[in-house]
Design a protein that fits this description.
Elements lengths: L1 E4 L4 E4 L7 E6 L10 H19 L3 E6 L6 H10 L3 H18 L15 H13 L3 E4 L2 E4 L15 H7 L14 E6 L12 E3 L1 H13 L3 E7 L3 H16 L4 E7 L2 E3 L2 E2 L10 H7 L2 H9 L7 E2 L2 H15 L16 H11 L4 H16 L5 H11 L11 H15 L6 H13 L3 H13 L2 E6 L2 E6 L1
Parallel strand pairs: 3-4, 3-9, 9-10, 11-13
Antiparallel strand pairs: 1-2, 5-6, 6-7, 7-8, 11-12, 14-15
Helix pairs in contact: 1-9, 2-3, 4-6, 4-7, 6-7, 9-10, 11-12, 12-13, 14-16, 15-16
Length: 457
Amino acid sequence: MRLHNSYTNQVEEFKPIEEGKVKMYVCGPTVYDYAHLGHARCYITWDVLYRYLKFKGYDVTYCRNVTDVDDKILKKAEKEGKTPEEVSQYWYKQFTNSMNALHNLKPDIEPFATKTIGEMISIIKDLIKNGYAYEAGGDVYFRVKKFPKYGYLSKQPIDQLESGARIEVGELKEDPLDFALWKKDEKFGYNSPWGVGRPGWHIECSAMSRKYLGKTIDIHAGGADLIFPHHENEIAQSECANGCKFVNYWLHNGFVTINKEKMSKSLGNFLTIDDLLKKYDANTIRFFILTNHYRMPVEFSDESLSSAQAGVKRLMNAKRTKINDDLDITQTDSYKQFVEAMDDDLNTSKALAVLFDLANRANKDEQDAFTILYKLASVLGFSFEKAALSEDELTKAVEQVSEVLGEKFASMDELIEYRKKAREEKNWDVADKIRIALDECGIVVKDSKEGTVIEAK
């Protein structure tokens, strides 16, 4: 298996520290608002890596943190008259719901920054003791120039970084490049040897990674926007505190763009996962993301999502047969082609081509084709369960049927009740018109003794 290591900027053969085991850390969310499509891309990408490593037989420990102490959380708490904990807990639940809705597996470990403050203080004390950090007016800063490899991950020489560095008002840095490990904060802070304060963002991941995975880990992943300064700073403080290499393989996914601009909350051009799921199901969103190589930027548009939706339908509409659990798929050509694609730095677009071939073969009644499709598709996180109809799909269908019948219906429930009454009155013409109109909208109506059920075709 070969992966692109951002640190060396090369595709390298993956060799774990301990044979058969993988320690993997992914930078998690700062929980203060809805997760958006950019987050979906990041966490779907690393969910697929997690699934694939397990599929390959590795014993994986996947740790993804939750940043629940941050300036944005504090500002939201003050604005809404809530405690920071109330804000972070509420938005963590929303984030978890979004991840579940996208079929992302839960990480093995999901630590909260506020529960790891003691470990952060311990690392900072070691850095001060060894001359890599210093206290200044209740803040603590890391001495960047004490770490010669600083800038290697982001491929930025020190002199280039210096030209853009500034000391903000109130900061007591020795050097403009130095970054905060601890910030004085008497209102929302925690007790420390340097007074009441709270950790800087970068030290949080170093502390949680070390506590739950150890001083040196196999894989550290996240969005490309984290390369500098977050991951650069993590390397500096971790290697100076631990006295050893921090990460063997750095992996980064590309941006999601809208009109060639990165999608982000600060630019106000983001689409929330919840809003997307009203128009498209989880399989479609995953397909859209996995059609593109994870390191490349992805341009969002309704056309690209509609194309993904059509692709998903091809897979989901494959002729289904009973799953043959006794089949050893590792002996099949499809398995070998799928693994070859995924081993090539997670080439998911090639892996999808294998799935399409299997769907075509299943439609031709080839024995076990659907079994292989089902098992390989699950590695990419696709679900073959019938998707719940979105609010938009239901609204459009109701409007279309209303037009056909010349009657105005306020909801799908009202429409189904109207059809039920028509059937009771043996008005089969009206009942059939509704069924046919819904069928044209991609909705199947099933009548049984238990009642009427509607589902996507």
